[in-house]
Structures are given as C-alpha cells and as structure tokens.
C-alpha cells in the first residue's frame, strides 16, 4: 500500500485546477457574478486553512497505540516525517483526495445553496492545491525572500525541532489562534 502514498507534486495542480475552474463556472452559470464567485472562493480558501491546520494537528499527529493504527498513521503522515525530503511524499495523492472530496462536498452542500456550493467547494479545493504546492516548495524550493523564506523556516522547524507546534503550512494564523505557535525563543530564531 505504500506506493499509494507517493505522488509527483505537479499531479495535484494538473488534476485539480481544471476541476476548480469547472466548479467556478458552474456557479457563474447558475447566476452568480464573477465578483460573488471570487468572494465565495476567498471564503473557501480561508476555510481550507482551518481544515489544513486541523487535519495536520489532530489527525496527522494523533497518538496511536495499535499495530493497525500505527500502520495507518505511518501511511497517512508518518512516512512524511520519517522522510521529509522525499519529493514523492510531499503532496496528498489525488486518488485519496478524490475520495475525501465526497464528504467535504456533502458538508458544503448541507450548509450552502445549490448555486453557491460549487464556488465554495472550489475555493476550498483551490486552497488545497495551494497548500500542496506550497508544501512541496517549502521542502524543495530555495526561497530567498519573505514570506516564503519565513514559511520554509517555520515549517522545517516543525519537522526538525518541535513537532508538537507549528501545524500551519501555508500560514501561522491558526497556530496563533489556537496557541500552537512555537515558543518565542524558537520563533525569534526563525525570523
């Protein structure tokens, strides 16, 4: 099953950006203006940042005790922490993402109207694409300027210094909100 955890980074935007565009177009065809779709997309991206933080903190770093839960955890996220520079273990495989899209779509559809659901979901999906591409870049890119340089130091600190803090990948916003920013001493070193 481990081969299912390996994905080239470019597969994520190649597969999901056309879906994002199609979903935005659906909301436009259902009567929303471009400005409304942009606002829904921004809201979807914002919600994605909370989902990103929550998944990383509460699922990817869950304490496991049994053989099967340890194995599942390793396949989901542990292999990434064991091999953080493995370029094939930095983005979420599209097949797994497609499966997870179904319940997320249903949650959005429960709270939104039929015409706003596609744009809101597309915003979240766009946030996911941005997250995966950012995550890959933070591991393999060589940013020389902020904010990318800061994000790289922040994320690599999570990997190599203090793994129970700094769960945000694309932003430290939710770490600040929920008190999981690295200590000020470590944060000062990251600046």
UniProtKB/TrEMBL annotation:
The chain crosses the membrane at residues 7-25, 37-55, 90-113, 119-138. Residues 42-180 form the Fatty acid hydroxylase domain. It is found in: Endoplasmic reticulum membrane. Coiled coil: none annotated. Its cofactor is Zn(2+). The keyword Transmembrane helix applies. InterPro entries: Fatty_acid_hydroxylase (IPR006694), Scs7 (IPR014430). GO terms for molecular function: fatty acid 2-hydroxylase activity; iron ion binding. The keyword Transcription regulation does not apply. GO terms for biological process: fatty acid biosynthetic process. It is a multi-pass membrane protein. Its main location: endoplasmic reticulum. It holds the Pfam family FA_hydroxylase. GO terms for cellular component: endoplasmic reticulum membrane. It comes from the Eukaryota. Keywords: Endoplasmic reticulum, Fatty acid biosynthesis, Fatty acid metabolism, Lipid biosynthesis, Lipid metabolism, Membrane, Metal-binding, Oxidoreductase, Transmembrane, Transmembrane helix, Zinc. Belongs to the sterol desaturase family. This is Fatty acid hydroxylase domain-containing protein. It comes from Aegilops tauschii subsp. strangulata (Goatgrass).
């Amino acid at each position: 099953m481990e081969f299912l955890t390996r994905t080239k980074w470019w597969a994520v935007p190649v597969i999901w950006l056309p879906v994002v565009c199609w979903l935005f177009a659906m909301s436009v065809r259902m009567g929303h203006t471009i400005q409304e779709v942009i606002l829904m997309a921004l809201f979807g991206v914002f919600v994605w940042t909370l989902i990103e933080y929550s998944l990383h903190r509460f699922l990817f770093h869950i304490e496991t005790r049994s053989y099967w839960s340890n194995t599942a955890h390793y396949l989901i996220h542990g292999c990434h922490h064991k091999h953080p520079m493995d370029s094939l273990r930095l983005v979420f495989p599209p097949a797994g993402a497609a499966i997870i899209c179904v319940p997320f779509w249903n949650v959005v559809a429960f709270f939104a109207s039929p015409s706003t659901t596609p744009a809101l979901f597309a915003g979240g999906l766009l946030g996911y694409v941005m997250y995966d591409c950012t995550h890959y870049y933070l591991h393999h890119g060589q940013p020389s300027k902020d904010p990318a340089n800061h994000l790289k130091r922040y994320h690599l600190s999570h990997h190599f210094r203090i793994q129970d803090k700094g769960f945000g990948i694309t932003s430290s916003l939710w770490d600040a909100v929920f008190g999981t920013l690295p200590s000020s001493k470590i944060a000062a070193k990251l600046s």
